[in-house]
Specification:
The protein is an alpha/beta fold. The protein is built from eleven helices and nine strands. It has two domains: about 55 residues, no CATH class; about 250 residues, 2-enoyl-CoA Hydratase, Chain A, domain 1 (Alpha-Beta Complex), CATH 3.90.226. A seven-stranded mixed β-sheet has the order 3-4-5-6-7-8-9, with helices on both faces. A two-stranded antiparallel ribbon has the order 1-2.
């Protein structure tokens, strides 16, 4: 009995303690190639798989840090009713919100910050897909409107990183109302004469694509991003035809005129900074024309006349 208590039990406890201390996400598997990559290497590479170039989803906090210069100011966002319709499916909507907040550390799916990108003032609005699929509800709509109003008031360009599965069904018509509200806010920014640059990340779908995500002066997409209203499977079932290869992917949309640029994440910050200088009429705008590897001639012309 003493041997079981004094020897076996401590060994078992030691083994269980070591297993609990080992991180679960030590390795990341590339969804495209199946390659296993050490998560620190992926994080250092802006959440892009080094071998395949596959762009993983990037959280709002990491996106702001990677885009803005240090010392940026995060904007306090308006409060909204947490559960206006008292919605419940398999579980209460308020419980889903609590779970999403605990998982992401965010109040809702959108963060807004004001700062500079390579010295150029900018207001950056970021959707986080990890928060309930980046869905557009009242809180997200208020945040986007607040971000666009902040850009107009402070006289900066607005850069929006879209990542969403669409409207939030738990808020019904109140969610759908955010589409015209954000559209009006984009128009206010346009009347103030400030640029609006949209970066479409994987995925950008549903009511977000049908509103503020496709109203930019310039549209940039990350490589391989899924962009559209309905998904490819739904479209195929509706029209009963096989869709072309790469349909609704960033490169396909660029080739067919729906997206201006497809930019690798490592070049995103520099590209946005050059566009901000060009569209704001800053003296350094001519540096944009010195980077043909980043922007095509057609895209430069479109950006200059946006």
């Amino acid at each position: 009995m003493n041997w079981l208590v004094n020897v076996v039990r401590p060994k078992i406890n030691s083994l269980l303690t070591r297993q609990a201390a080992t991180p679960e996400n030590l390795w990341i598997k590339c969804p495209e190639t199946g390659q296993l990559v050490f998560h620190k290497d992926v994080e250092a590479n802006h959440w892009v798989i080094p071998g395949s170039g596959y762009h993983l989803r990037m959280g709002a906090v990491q996106r702001l840090a990677a885009t803005l210069d240090s010392g940026f100011e995060e904007i306090k966002l308006p409060d909204v009713a947490a559960d206006p319709l008292k919605f419940r499916d398999e579980k209460k909507y308020v419980d889903r919100l609590k779970d999403a907040r605990a998982k992401t550390g965010m109040t809702d799916a959108v963060k807004v910050a004001v700062g500079a990108i390579e010295g150029s003032p900018a207001t950056v609005i970021v959707q986080d897909f990890e928060f309930m699929g980046g869905s557009l509800g009242m809180a997200a709509g208020e945040a986007i409107v607040a971000g666009l109003e902040t850009a107009a008031a402070r006289g900066t360009p607005a850069i929006l990183f879209a990542a969403s599965g669409g409207a939030r069904m738990q808020e019904g018509i109140l969610s759908l109302m955010q589409m015209p509200r954000t559209t009006v806010a984009v128009q206010m920014l346009r009347e103030a004469g400030k640029p609006y640059i949209v970066v479409l990340t994987n995925p950008t779908t549903g009511g977000v694509t049908a509103s503020y995500a496709m109203l930019g002066d310039v549209h940039i997409a990350e490589p391989g991003a899924l962009i559209g209203f309905a998904g490819p499977r739904v479209i195929e079932q509706t029209i009963r035809e096989k869709l072309p290869d790469g349909f609704q992917r960033a490169e396909y949309l660029r080739d067919h005129g729906m997206v201006d640029l497809v930019v690798h994440r490592k070049d995103m910050r520099a590209t946005i900074a050059r566009l901000c200088r060009l569209l704001s009429g800053a003296p350094a705008a001519d540096t944009l024309l010195d980077a043909p590897e980043t922007l095509s001639d057609e895209a430069q012309v479109e950006a200059a006349h946006a």
